[in-house]
């Protein structure tokens, strides 16, 4: 068990080091996320009144678009430079690679969110810094990344890999998106916790089911 | 295996007859519902096609599991065939539902849980076909589409629950008291007979189509082998 965790940590560490040296994935996600918010600002005419009810939706759409870019890039790099084969040659369980990549992607997504949230809160005076809201952000990101990492690993092996990830990922991650939007909206509008807890449960159930399912089938995705 | 099996021919005839009888029952036998009039008759085929759609997606998920365990490409052909057939049936169910909804709900479409889920299900399985198109290696294509079929089938109930937690006006015909205000109704026995016969007819029809589709897939695989053989002989 200890060596398993060490192996996962090695995969995560490799991703973080590589990213730290170029910073190309994270900066692309971040700039993209800010651009999406800018576009929403004009498309929806987000003023202080409108943003009350729309903020949660705008934020999640931003996270999801930026997340897709990050997922695609994180796995495409492995494929292009032949690193995936190297990873597969390592004498560890294949699921180590899945969890390593997934946690790495989760860290990137959370970093983007950590930067986007204060900016958004500064622009629209939205009270995002409450434990409940931040919990929803983490839970939603976990579910999205759990499915996204698996699908991205599939997609990079396909001929149409540049366009396929959002098409496959969006319909499957819809329960996460709906639950995350409703739960974060609830926290932003100060709805009592009893009305939000059902959405939180749904998020947790989704995270558990899909992480477990991805763990079970990952071997088949990387099999040669 | 190139010969069409006799049993399949029999199944063709039975499926055709059953669909004809079901249509006959709907048009000539079953009474017109008092509140909604003749548009309610769409219901019999609407539920039957939706049922066949869901059945096909279930078959695809099961075929996916079996393929991942056994590795026999026959299961891949079956899963792909089931998805293709079910996409058409499910779309038919949505269109039939729209025809019914126009006079009853006074709108072609509403963002109600079942309708929204149906639209998302169509998109999931359209994505399934796109995924298959993008992968050339048959084994890899089979593995990926098996996984996607399983994941798709897992996500559908969660999607449905999540949308249902908002609000619903879709009638629950069987076993609901307050449904009448939303266009629900109670079925008397000719209605029940027609309803269950339509379900049976479409299920047989689905099995028949799926069998044809599997045979088509097998024949295509054979043609591919013959083609490669003829190239390697230098013709």
* Helix fraction bin of chain B: over 70%
- Kindly provide the radius of gyration of chain B, computed on alpha-carbon positions and rounded to a whole number of angstroms: 21 Å
| Biggest pleated-sheet summary of chain B | none
- Radius of gyration of chain A, CA atoms, in whole angstroms: 18 Å
N- to C-terminal distance of chain A: 26 Å
> What is the average of the pLDDT values of chain B?
85
Order of helices and strands of chain B: HHHHHH
| Structural shape of chain B | globular
Number of strands of chain A: 0
Strand-pairing-aware structural class of chain B: mainly alpha
SS elements, strand count of chain B: 0
* Percent strand of chain A: under 5%
Secondary structure tally, helices of chain B: 6
Query: How is the quaternary structure best described?
Result: heterodimer
Low-confidence stretches of chain B: none
Query: Into which percentage range does the β-strand content of chain B fall?
Result: under 5%
Separation of termini of chain B?
26 Å
Largest sheet of chain A: none
How many domains is the backbone of chain B divided into? 1
| Percent range of helical residues of chain A | over 70%
Sum this structure up briefly.
Chain A is mostly helical and 224 residues long. Helices cover 87% and strands 0% of the residues of chain A. Chain B is globular.
Can you walk through the features of this model?
The complex is a heterodimer of chains A (224) and B (235). With 224 residues, chain A is mostly helical. Chain A has one domain. Chain A is built from 9 helices and no strands. In chain B, helix 2 packs across helix 5 and helix 2 packs across helix 6. The mean pLDDT of chain B is 85. Chains A and B meet through helix 6, helix 7, helix 8 and helix 9 of A and helix 4 and helix 5 of B.
